[in-house]
Specification:
This is Ornithine cyclodeaminase. The chain is α/β, with parallel strands linked by helices and 314 residues long. It is built from 10 helices and 15 strands. A hairpin with a 4-residue loop joins strand 3 and strand 4.
Amino acid sequence: MHIYKRKQIAERVKLDATALEAVEAGFAALGRGEVEMPPILSMNIAESNGEVDVKTAHIRGWPRFAIKISPGFFDNPKLGLPSLNGLMLLFSAKTGLVEAVLFDEGYLTDIRTALAGAIAAKHLARADAHSVAVIGAGLQAELQVAALRLVRDIHEVHVYARDHTKAEAYATHMRAHHGLPVTVHTSAASACAEADIVVTTTPAREPVLRWSDLPRGIHVTAMGSDNPHKNELDPTILASADLVVVDRLSQSQALGELRHVPALQREVFELGSLIAAGRSLRSSAEQISVCDLTGTGVQDTAIANYAARLLEGV
């Protein structure tokens, strides 16, 4: 059994095209029905504004499966600590023996989450999309933009966050580290008005995005709602958008944005099924598309297998 620490993992696993291919392969396997994936085990720790999720999946034919333990404590930044932490345990799919402990402190979750956003945009956003609006100013707000650059020619960023100081700090960081022009906005509507893609990256309990905020042709990826008490999108968005996609229908209905519109009467697609079928839903530059990503165990097994191959030099 091997034990790998965050530094070792981060030196090998990058936000790049090969990592994106690995996570996309996991989505495609899910779409083909080749994945065993139980519901998420989730526990809230309300007095500390925290939660703990346990996710797992087995992809048929893959040598290993991962079990991820992921705590999220959202007051941690006030203590100078990261909001997310955790580790992944990698087991042999043949013997059930533990083969590796990836003590990544949430690094692989950050990477696979960003890549999932890029995969959603790859299959749903307009091909000529070049401008992105980010709602929120945390780590995912940075990584989502970096990952989007793997699939679209992004050369303009707009940001809105409730904390204007954090939004300004985000803009300064993105200009310095990613060489991108960033405009800080005073409202979500203002940021979205300038964008082809919008990504919500917040732990919000009430909607941060309204239907009236969205111009025609935009693609929306909602990343933050992965717990029943979270909600980033006004229900009208899901009811009115031309295309609605999720990573896992049952998860979105239980934990994600679909939970807040239980009477939604429309067809909702799963991202993995679209990828597996090579199907493109967008038929017009004017369509508004939405993808709700709650985070799936198959993403964790995919990125953990990929990380282990790199760490072992296979």
